[in-house]
Amino acid sequence: MRRAAFIAAVAALVSAGAAGGAPTPAERPAPQVAIFYYAWYGTPHADGAWLHWGQGENEPPRAVGSNFYPARGPYSSGAAGILRAQMREIAAVGVDTVIVSWWGPGSPEDARLRPVAAAAHAVGLHVALHVEPWAGRTPETVVEALRGLAGLDIRDVYVYDSTSSTDDDWRVALTGLTGHRVFAHTSLPGKALRGGFQGLYTYDVLVYDGTSFARMCQSARQLGLLCAPSVGPGFDSRRATGDPRVRERRDGRWYDHMWQAAVKASPDLVTITSYNEWHEGTQIEPARATDGGYLSYDGAWGLRGPRAERAYLGRTAYWIDRLRGIVDATLGVRERAQ
Predict the structure, then answer these.
(1) What is the DSSP letter of 306?
(2) If you placed Cys at 76, which of 1, 43, 119, 290 could pair as Cys (CB 3.0 to 4.6 Å)?
(3) Residue 26: partners with Cβ closer than 8 Å, 6 or more residues away
(4) What's the pTM?
């Protein structure tokens, strides 16, 4: 009897997932691409103080909390001109959606969400949320907060550190939420299904090296879930946090490796970590060579100087086309992003 009950329960979960998750292979549209974006930077001129650039006891503008130095210099995410330029840059490489880091109602990132969304929509980008673990965050408060964002045309929601709450709590809270596809931060499709999520993503490009992507996406499809593995160029947060762990970029070879793994997994979406998380060194936003011991993109795919500053944007355009099957595998960095 217990075995029969277990089989029935699993079947019910699979049925529930299939009803609201991934489409069948015949119905599946071309894979989409989304990129994680951070709107938390500030300058004294625009915001009254340096925001985030001083992480790790650095003193901007000469010293910033990153092992790389932005080509734009330390900027304000609240500056309209910066937002417009960044969104145009993201759209130009073929990305579909900007996933905005969001720390809940009333946070500084919440105040910037609407301007970011407006700038993204102006160039044809969709907007999604990366729900960060704010103080007091629960599945219930997340769902309540999402309902308060009606009108921003946000469909996809990625919940970072979703495993900090139980599967049962997530399933109960998400049952009444409509109009959103919610992705769990996990590589375990069964766990995402038990939590009532519609999909899953990995985000962390230090822990996840791509070797599990094919298995993860195959299992997700069997359970009717959307699979959105995360790719990134590397990881280096030594200057910002002191974390000694490093994922070397290897002149772009690591980015290629992760993209290859994602493409082979036949995902529903590919998520990119990240456009501008400078603290962790996962950014593909242009960086420049400068004094002060900063790393640069020089050498990536054989590029140097000003061309190297935009190397990761160009390679992203190339891999997006590969994902969609519209570019020859022998082509190099796309000129449109140079």
Answers:
(1) H
(2) 43
(3) none
(4) 0.90
